[in-house]
Backbone:
């Protein structure tokens, strides 16, 4: 390969990269504005200023393009978290940061894409839902690490499996996100993130030992009464 052939190829590769970015940016806008079903490759091509055929040289289908848009968006959020989280000290502070980032990025930065994930991610007609599940596993990995570290340090309760703790955290946040993507809902995300973070944290911290002992005593008494009632009923 000659030096001249390399010099000619570099601008072509640069233009191709720029065009790919333009396609992804336009597709993100269209999917965010009208959703997956109403989005068309024609409109995406129009916004980029290219033909549909050009887009199909990069992506085999609208589904493939949508997946790439979501992967790129998740990558951006994950990169932000990985860059900022190491500088946050304390389990509770890390937890509050992740709750706020999750709610903020999925609403203020991308309400349309948030709606797309919440709706299309549940579809089972192809592998799209599986792709979303894998993306979410990568995305929630930092939270799982914080929860695991909190359990190990004693900041977070040890009587529940990590998977259940994860569901206890993301379940309420998903309901908040559904409210945020509704047309008639106005959500103060800063206040919501602070309030929800405090509420969720109360469910994560270990119960006071005195109250835990009382709960165990109550449970033992209830069990003993039931056994007695069962035995006398016979």
Residues:
């Amino acid at each position: 390969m000659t030096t001249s052939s390399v010099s000619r190829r570099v601008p072509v590769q640069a233009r191709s990269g720029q065009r790919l970015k333009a396609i992804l940016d336009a597709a993100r806008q269209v999917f965010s504005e009208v959703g997956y079903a109403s989005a068309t490759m024609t409109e995406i091509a129009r916004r980029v200023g290219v033909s549909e055929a050009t887009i199909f040289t990069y992506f085999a289908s609208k589904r493939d393009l949508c997946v790439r848009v979501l992967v790129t968006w998740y990558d951006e959020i994950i990169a932000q978290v990985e860059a900022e989280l190491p500088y946050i000290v304390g389990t509770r502070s890390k937890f509050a940061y992740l709750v706020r980032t999750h709610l903020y990025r999925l609403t203020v930065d991308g309400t349309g894409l948030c709606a797309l994930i919440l709706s299309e991610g549940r579809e089972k007609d192809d592998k799209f839902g599986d792709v979303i599940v894998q993306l979410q596993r990568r995305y929630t990995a930092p939270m799982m690490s914080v929860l695991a570290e909190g359990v190990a340090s004693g900041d977070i309760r040890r009587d529940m499996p990590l998977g259940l703790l994860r569901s206890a955290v993301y379940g309420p946040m998903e309901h908040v996100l559904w409210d945020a993507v509704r047309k008639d809902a106005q959500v103060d995300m800063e206040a919501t993130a602070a309030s929800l973070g405090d509420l969720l944290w109360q469910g994560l911290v270990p119960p006071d030992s005195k109250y835990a002992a009382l709960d165990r005593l109550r449970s033992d008494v209830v069990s003993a009464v039931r056994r007695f009632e069962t035995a006398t009923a016979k």
